[in-house]
Amino acid sequence: MEKMEQIQLENVTFNVPEVLSCISKYQEHVRDIVNSNYVDFLSINRDMLDDLKSLETDIKELIASTSQLTVDKSNVAWNDLRNYQRDLEEGIRGYKIARKLLSIHDLFESLNLSGNGYEKTAHILTKIKTMLDELDDPVLEELHFFQGLILRHETEYDKLLNDLDVTFNKLVQLQQRSFQNTKSVTIRIHKDENLLYQVVVTQLKTEHNFESVCQFLLENVFAPVIVKPVSLICDEKSNEQSVLIQLSYQLSVGEDLRPGYKTVLSNVMQIFYNLSNMNIVVSDDECLFKVLARQMKKRLCSLLMEQCLDRDIPDTIEGMKESSMVKDVCEFNAFLKTTNFVDGENDDLLEEYANSIETIHQKKLCDNVLDTAVQIMKHESHEMVLIEDHEYQFVGSTSARLSSCMVTRTVVDLKKFLDKVLAEAFANGGTADRFIQTIATILERYMVDVPMANEKLLFKIPQQSALFRNDCTYLNYWLQKNDDKLKDHSSFATISEALKACGEDIFQHQLNTQRTQMMQALNGFKLSIHLVELGTEQQRAVRQCVRQFELLKNVWQTVLPESVYKQSLSGLVDQFLREIMKRIQNLEDITTAIGNGLVLLIDIITETLPNLFKEPSEIHQLVKQWTKLLQLRQILCGSLVEITELWAEGKGPLTMCFSAEEIKHMVRALFQNTKQRQACIASIV
Question: Chain-centre distance of CA 316, in angstroms?
Fold first, then answer.
C-alpha cells in the first residue's frame, strides 16, 4: 500500500472533504482485506497500522479544531461541519476495531515462532485472552470472524494444556499394575529439571489441577504403605537420567500383618525424599509440593493417624513408658515441613496429634479395662463361691450379726479386677481420674448387661435371682469398702444405690413370681357350704405349696444371707397361712368331717413348715400368722367349754389373734344352735 500523505489542518473548512476522502479509502482497504483474509489476515502490511495510528491522531486534532470554531449555529455550514465530525468519529471507531483485530492476529502468528517455550506460549495466550475479553466496542461481539478468533484461542489453549499434560506424564511417570493377588506401582521421575521447571511453572500459571497425581499417590502409594507390608525400592543413583520408586504388595492382608508405625513413617519419608526430585520451586512462596499438600495433606495425615498411629498407641502403662511415638511423630512432622510439603492449614495436625497421644493412650487403656470387665461379665459361670461374713460386712452395719452367703465366680473375678484397676489408678496419678471413671462405667454396664444377657435365668430360676441379688450387694460392699478412695467422685453414691435397687428389683420380681405360683396352687383349696367332707384336692393344694417352700429352701437357704432368707421365705409362708385361714373362717357351716379334715391339713402344715428354718422354733417369731394357725386348730378341735375358757371373757390366749366376732362366727359354724352354744356366744364379748 502507498504511503499515505500528511493532511494539513491549517484551514479546516477547506481540508474536511480531503480527510473524509482519506477515511473512505482506508475503510474500503480494510474491508477488502477482511473480506478476503479475515481468518488469518495474511496479506496485511505492518505500515498500514502505523498509517492508521497517524490518521487517528489527525482526526482527533481536526475534531478538536472544529469544535473551537465560532460559527452561526443556524448556518448551513455549521450543520455540514457537525456531520463531518460525526463521520470522523465513526472513522476512528472503525480504525480501532481494525487495529485490535490485527494485533490479535499478530499474537496468534507469534505462537508459531521457533524457540517459544511453554511459559512464553502461555503468556501470549493469556494476552490474547485479555484482548478478547476487553470488548471496547459492542460491535465486536457481533462480528463473525471475531467469534472465530475466540474459537482459535480455545483451540490453542487446549493444545497447550494437552502438551503440558503429555510432557509432565513423560517426565513423571505414574504406573500401576494389578495381578490376581498383588499390585505393583512404579514412579519414574526424569532428571530433566529445566523442562520439568517449564512444565510445572506453566501448569501452575494455568491453574492446573494436580488432583489425579494426588489421588494416585494416596490410593496406590501412601494408603498401601500405611496399612500393608510392602516391598519398597527407592533408587536415584543407578540411573543418571531418572529416579525410581517401586513398591509391590498383596491386595488382601490380614490385620495381624499390618506394619508398625516406625516402619510406616520410615517408608513414607523415603518416598517423599525421592519424590522431591519433582518438587519444582516456582518462587520463595510456591513449589509443587505445596500445591500437592493443599489437595492431599489433610487426607494423608488423617489416613496416617486413623489407620496406623491410633492402632499402635500402647494400651498398657509399661508400653507407653517405653514408647517413643510422641518424639517420632514430631520428627516426621518436622520432616514434612523441611521438604515443603505444607499447606498452611494442616501443618501442625500431626504435632497436635502427638501432643494428644498420652490422652489417647489413657482412653485406650481405659477402653481395654472396660472391654476386659465386660468379658468377665459375659462368663456364664454357674460356679458359686462362699463369701464369709467378714467379707460381706457393710459400713454402718458393724453391730449386726451377718452370715455367710453365696455369690457367683464371675462377680468375684470382677471384684478382683476392680481391685487391680483401683490399685493401678493410684499407682499412676495421671490416669487416676480416667481409671476411676472407668470403674463407674463398669458398674453401670454391669447393671445393664448382666440382666439383659441372663434375663431368662434371672426371672425363671429362683437360685439365679438370689445369686444376682447377692452379686449386686457384694459389688455395693466393694464400693463402701473403698469409699475413702472414691468419695471425691459423687457418681459412686448414685451407683451404690442403683446397685442395691437393681439386685433387689430382680429378687423381688422372683418373690412376686413365687407368690403368684402359690396362689395358683391354692386355687385347688376350695371350701363351700355344699362341701360334705374334704377331698384330695384340698390336700393336694396344701402339699403343693409346702413342696414349693421346700424347693425354695433348698436353693435359697445356703445362697442368701440368713436374714434375707428368713425374711423372704417367712413372708411367703405368712401369706400362705393368711389365705388358708381366711377361707376356713369364711365357712358358714363346718361339719365334723370337714373340721377333722381341716385339722389334718393344719397338722401337715405345722409338721413341715418349721423345718424351713435352721431353728424350727423360730417360726413363731418369723411367721406372724403361725400362732393364729395353732389357735385355729384349737378352735376346730375344741368343745364349747374349751373355747369359752380359751376366750376367758376377753382375757384368754384367743384374744391375741382373734376378735370376738371371729370367735362367735367360728362357734356358729362348728356347733349346732343349742343353749350351750348360746351361752358360749353370750360370754364372748
Answer: 24
pLDDT score of 401 more than 60: no
pLDDT band per the 50, 70, 90 thresholds, residue 16: low
Query: Which DSSP category does 112 fall into?
Result: T
Instruction: Give the distance between the most distant pair of CA atoms in the chain.
Output: 170
Q: Are 201 and 280 a contacting pair, CB within 8 Å?
A: yes
Contact 613, 567 (CB under 8 A): no
Q: How far apart are CA 458 and CA 510, in angstroms?
A: 8
Cell of 236: 536415584
Residue pLDDT, tens place only, 161-219 = 787 788 888 988 999 998 989 999 999 999 888 888 888 888 888 778 889 899 999 99
- Nearest one of 310, 406, 421 to 376, comparing CA atoms: 421
Supply the pTM of this predicted model: 0.67
The whole-angstrom separation of Cα 673 and Cα 667 is 10
Alpha-carbon gap, residue 301 to 350, rounded angstroms: 7
Q: How far is CA 650 from the centre of its chain?
A: 77
Q: Report the 10 Å Cβ neighbour count for 100.
A: 19
**Is residue 52 within 8 Å of 99, Cβ to Cβ?**
yes
Instruction: Work out the number of other CB atoms within 10 angstroms of the CB of residue 446.
Output: 23
What angle in degrees, to the nearest 10, is found between the helix axes of 349-378 and 325-338? Answer: 150
Alpha carbon of residue 460 to chain centroid: 38
How many residues make up the chain in this entry?
A: 685
How is residue 260 annotated by DSSP? Answer: P
Residues 6 or more apart whose CB falls under 8 angstroms from that of 24 comprise none
DSSP-based three-state secondary structure for 336: helix
Residue type present at position 398 = T
C-alpha cell at 408: 457367683
Instruction: Return the SS3 of 117.
Output: coil
Question: Hey, is 521 helix, strand or coil?
Answer: helix
CB contact burial 285-320 (16+ within 10 A = b; e otherwise): eebbbbbbbbbbbeebbebbbeebbeebbbbeeeeb
Q: Are 19 and 62 in contact (CB under 8 A)?
A: yes
Taking the CA atoms of 430, 432, 434 and 435 in sequence, report the sign of the dihedral they define.
positive
The alpha carbon dihedral of 51, 56, 61, 67 has a sign of positive
Checking DSSP bridges between strand 242-250 and strand 172-178, what pairing results, if any?
unpaired
